[in-house]
Amino acid sequence: MRLSGKHIVLGLTGSIAAYKAAYLLRGLVKEGAEVQVVMTPSAKEFITPVTMSALSGKPVASEFFSANDGSWYSHVDMGQWADLLLIAPATASTIGKMAHGICDNLLLTTYMSAKCPVMIAPAMDLDMFNHPSTLANLEKLRSYGNLILEPGEGELASGLYGKGRMEEPENIVEEVVRFFSQKKKLLNKHFLVTAGPTYEKIDPVRFIGNYSSGKMGYAIANELACEGANVTIVSGPVQIQNSNPEITVIPVESASEMYEHCLRIFPETDGAVMCAAVADFTPEHYSEQKVKRQKDNLKLNLKPTTDIAAALGQLKTEKQLLVGFALETNNELVNAFLKLSKKNLDFVVLNSMNVKGAGFIVDTNEITIIGRDNNPTFFELKSKAEVAKDIVIRIISEMEKKYGFQE
Ligand code: C5P
Questions:
Q1: 369 C-alpha vs ligand 1 centroid, how far in Å?
Q2: Mutate to test the pocket of ligand 1, among 325, 345, 367 (most ligand atoms within 8 A of CB)
Q3: Closest atom of ligand 1 relative to the 305 alpha carbon
Q4: Annotated catalytic residue within 171, 210, 335, 344
Q5: Atom 8 in ligand 1: which residue has the minimum CA distance?
Q6: 262 ligand 1 Cβ < 6 A
Q7: Which residues contact 310 (CB under 8 A, 6 or more apart)?
Q8: Taking Cα atoms as reference points, which of 385, 329, 368, 379 lies closest to residue 215?
Q9: Is 274 in the pocket of ligand 1 (CB under 6 A)?
């Protein structure tokens, strides 16, 4: 029994795939898990609470209060009891509500209170799955550190064929077993990640910035946290909300603020990933008053900022790992390797401006990792969450190789 002693809250939503949740529940219980089922009101249209309570050996939680005796189902207690919250099947509607903090049923309040990891198995028709809002919501949930079990391709209840089928119950049970048996490789490690752009002020209303969204840096931070690391993001101005308790965000605006914080934090860390698009130049003078329109050209004198990655490279001890990014437009591999040497990095992640769908703003990226042996590893175009996984796998292997640490 590979799940004995594990507490799982199994959330069901109103999808035709809810009938498969009975098999899923049976599989989890067979492996020794203690399962508390929570159903949304519409899930009960698809499968009865009687079935689920008989299979779990526990009353199903669905309403905030019991109609019989007024006793209260505490979503907070459930969220704290659980070692894993598994939502299967998860409809587009529930996924959307989870992404936006709407909690109009017990499952959603449990989700918002859960302190444990969350695993989601989406199930819906292919057009609903491929709708930009669903894809964006799933991306958002990934950024919260939730694990998504990608739906399979096949025949759908609508009669259509495509992506949207809930992962098969036996595969979900295997995922859950794998999840609990996998050893987190970065437990007790602390990482610093820089993310986003910097804003260099010209006057009270203007700045020099860039198009960095911070998505790549936040995805890396989430992935490091998934491996058990404690992460501090020093973040330029971005639109991303962090909700991962293992991640602390220090918001900054300018390159010099980012530098101050990084310099202070780096000595306490086991490594840093320099993902921010830091301005290389900043206005020499800040004008206290708004610069007025004038007839002649305006000359703005810019001075170089301090290279944070290079400064940390100087400070780096034998026990620390330093990862940098390179965004190149020409002679990419050569320039990226030069950057690695100049800044004393352990490896550099090259993303090319020449690849469609890679780099700033977009949700995807295509990278090449170049290590100190100058032997590049090429990766295909993937979502930034997947790219972050590749980068963190490399971080773990570099730490194992270089410092011989085994957790
Ligand atoms: O030299 P370049 O700016 O292309 O180097 C990119 C790498 O250096 C990235 O990892 C970026 O986060 C880091 N960097 C930095 N401080 C700067 C400029 C770049 O940490 N002032």
A1: 16
A2: 325
A3: 21
A4: 210
A5: 309
A6: no
A7: 342, 343, 344
A8: 385
A9: yes
* Co-location of 260 and 377 in the same domain: yes
Tokens of 238: 């971005």
Same domain, 164 and 285: no
Q: Are residues 319 and 387 in the same domain?
A: yes
Instruction: Render pLDDT for 146-186 as a digit per residue (tens, 0 to 9).
Output: 999 988 788 877 777 877 888 899 999 999 999 988 778 89
**Alpha helix locations (H) across 144-210?**
169-181
Structure tokens at 357: 């769908």
- Decide: 326 in ligand 1 pocket, CB within 6 A: yes
Which residues make Cβ contacts (< 8 Å) with residue 117, sequence separation at least 6? 83, 84, 85, 145, 146, 147, 179
Residue 220 and residue 153 in one domain: no
- Say if residue 72 is in the same domain as residue 136: yes
Residue 384 alpha carbon to ligand 1 centre in Å:
19
Residue 201 domain flag: yes
How remote is the CA of residue 86 from the centroid of ligand 1, in Å? 40
202 and 154 within one domain: no
Give the total number of structural domains in the chain.
2
Q: Both 163 and 222 in a single domain?
A: no
d(CA 308, ligand 1 centre) in Å: 7
365: closest CA among 347, 384, 350? 384
When pLDDT is cut at 50, 70 and 90, the band that residue 407 belongs to is very low
**How far away, in angstroms, is 234 Cα from ligand 1 center?**
14
What are the backbone dihedrals phi and psi of residue 202, each rounded to the nearest 5 degrees, phi first? -100, -50
The question of whether 210 is a catalytic residue gets the answer yes
**Domain limit, last residue, from 181, 206, 238:** 181
Atom of ligand 1 nearest to the CA of 275: 12
**pTM score:** 0.68
Ligand 1 atom closest to Cα of residue 280: 21
Instruction: Check whether residue 122 and residue 195 sit in a common domain.
Output: no
**CATH number of the structural domain spanning residue 166:** 3.40.50.1950
**146, 181, 216 - which closes a domain:** 181
Asked if residue 189 lies in contact with residue 271, where contact means CB atoms within 8 angstroms, the answer is yes
Residue 270 covered by a domain: yes
Render pLDDT for 238-254 as a digit per residue (tens, 0 to 9).
Answer: 999 887 778 999 999 99
Q: Which domain holds residue 255?
A: 190-403
